[in-house]
Amino acid sequence: MKSEPTTFPKNKWLAWIGLGITFICFYFIARNIDWDEFINTLVGINRFYFSLALLIFMSGWVLRAMRWQTLLAPIGKIPLKECFVFVMIGYLANLILPLRTGEFIRLILFSREKKTPIGGTLATLVLEKLFDVTALLVFVFILSLVVILPPDWRRGILLVEGVAIVALVLMMVIAFQRGNLNWLERFIPHFVPPGIKSRLLNLLHTFVEGLAALKYWRALLWVVVQSIIIWGAVAVSLHFFLLATGIYLPWHAAIFVMVITNLGSAIILTPGGFGLIHFLTIVALNRYGVDESIAFGLAVVFHESVVIAQVVVGLISLWAKGFSWRQIRHQEIPSNRIEPRESLL
């Protein structure tokens, strides 16, 4: 079958909206910043805590590659190094393209090189996001034991978590119905041309096949554990970033910042999280009485150091695979299909 070229992003106005949100966030931040105190925060960074924080955060990328490898197991046995390289290429693209398009670019590049069905790899991405939100629920529960959250925040967090859990359960039900997928045709309108309908059905079938990891309790448990460890690493990393900037708070402050910034940025998307992450960090630390100038200093140290690391590792990964930026922007969706492997773990 021939492939249809797909260019990212198609709509430049999405990029302008993201940039607009970034500008608005920085505008509201700049109004209340004491720039001398902000600079002092940057100059006074504890290098030991900073290095430890960044190292722990970067280890989370390896853990994410390991989790993706587990989810990909029904499709094929992929080396961890390969998973890591594609994950980092996706991060690199996310920093520049709107709406986290890099996640889809990662899937398309992977499917094209490994000759795997795009629907199956798309399913692994959906599962990653659902397990991420579900793991955050664990930390929200821990947080609720020691911190009284504002009612509006609590309702919003519980709504997001509830939707994620319902979606995950639905995915599990679909995974166990993998042997009988004729019911999928009911979701395609009758007026859709036969050729397009055939492609849609193929995409849906391969998507369901990509959910196969949910059928194996050992794999499911391992992915849950991996997800909790991944977010645990983020929380520990944030704790050391706090210490690096001279902010000494209870251990649960790092969890609070992690939950607020990640759930908030999942709802409102900006390129690379610029502006939004900084604003949400200030909002979260305001709960602990941290001065906005110091909180902004932490946000800059944390976010910009992570971005620089993602750019460096992402460019190395891009070079290792022999891809160019033009190939990242102009991709072909592979339509080939392979049979998934039944053995897992």
In short:
This protein has 345 residues and is mostly helical. The chain has helices at 12-30, 35-43, 47-72, 80-94, 102-114, 118-146, 151-176, 194-209, 217-244, 252-267, 276-286, 292-321, 325-329, and strands at 4-7, 330-333. It has one domain (11-332).
Give the SSE map.
Blueprint: E1 4-7, H1 12-30, H2 35-43, H3 47-72, H4 80-94, H5 102-114, H6 118-146, H7 151-176, H8 194-209, H9 217-244, H10 252-267, H11 276-286, H12 292-321, H13 325-329, E2 330-333
Antiparallel strand pairs: 1-2
Helix pairs in contact: 1-11, 2-12, 3-4, 3-6, 3-9, 4-5, 4-12, 5-6, 6-7, 6-8, 6-9, 6-10, 9-10, 10-11, 11-12
Structural class: mainly alpha
The string of secondary-structure elements, in order, is: EHHHHHHHHHHHHHE
Q: Total number of β-strand segments? A: 2
Count of alpha and pi helical runs:
13
Shape: globular
Which strand-content bin applies to the residues? under 5%
How many distinct folded domains? 1
